Amino acid sequence: MKYNFHLDVAVGPTIRSVGPDRLSTANLYGEAKFDCEAEANPTPTYQWLQQVPELELPLIVSNEAKLELRNVSYQHQGDYICRVWNYIGNTERAVMSDPVTLQVVGGPQVLRGSWGGEVTALRGEDATLGLVVCADPRPRHASWEWGSLHLQVGQGLGRFQAEQLVQQEKREDCYEARLHVRQVDPTDSRTYFLKVENDKGTDRHYLRLAVRGSYNNGKFQLHRSRIQHSSGPVLIERLRDLHELSRYQGIDVSCSLCEFIKRPSFLPPPPPPYSRHGQPKRFPSTPLDATRL
């Protein structure tokens, strides 16, 4: 009598290879591939993890033995680990590979959303606009641009000061760019662009500065003549000033303002009114206290 036996031995995973190399290089916006091969019984499960400097825990980037990265950016640069596991009974058996490193080279890339899309500051305060740019090779030229102005990093212009690029401690080939604006006013509300160049190319991205009204005391003075002779955008700006006064200083001007704008003298008449002697009337220029409008 002949007996056939099949012995199924359960074993935890053992990683045979990971690569193709310990150090791989990819071009910016190109592709990168890694393979992980392991032996185990039962069949193991694979996972690729990226070690991100800003995060305490690794980031899961793939649930397969192969990792394929397309449209590579500098945010893909760093170390990757292959994790393999199976279950024997109810016990997980897991093993992790040594890290493999991806190096990204190419033109500059200003990271989108790195500091958000808008910076808000109160009138009279100092504001700082900042973006992160990565490049390998290092940037050879960087400037902030707004309107017709161009300010090189490391230079100043009046209330504006552009810092030199500062190397980030945790991210390789990445730099912080900052533009300082002292004592902002509403005319500074605009879009500011950071333009960066190296030997491989150029990139440009923006931040918007939004200046809100702020006043240092409880009284907001407007000349009656400035209000009465205002129209269109100028009139809207005067009303916005009053709104900001109530918002930031806690002064209730809304009801008084409602009564004030109902006055015929507030609306700009087509021709100026004349006195009995044929001379144009002059509106009083006494400063108005917003709390008494």
Automatic annotation (TrEMBL):
Compartments where located: Membrane
One family name in Pfam for this protein: Ig_3
Keyword Glycoprotein: yes
Membrane topology: Single-pass type I membrane protein
GO MF annotation: an example: cell adhesion molecule binding
TM ranges: none
Stretches the record annotates as Disordered: 269-293
GO cellular component: cell-cell junction; plasma membrane
Keywords: Disulfide bond, Glycoprotein, Immunoglobulin domain, Membrane
One GO term (biological process): cell-cell adhesion
SMART domains on file: IG (SM00409), IGc2 (SM00408)
Gene3D superfamilies assigned: Immunoglobulins
Residue ranges of every copy of the Ig-like domain listed in the record: 13-101
Highest taxon above the source species: Eukaryota
Name recorded for this polypeptide: Ig-like domain-containing protein
Species: Nezara viridula
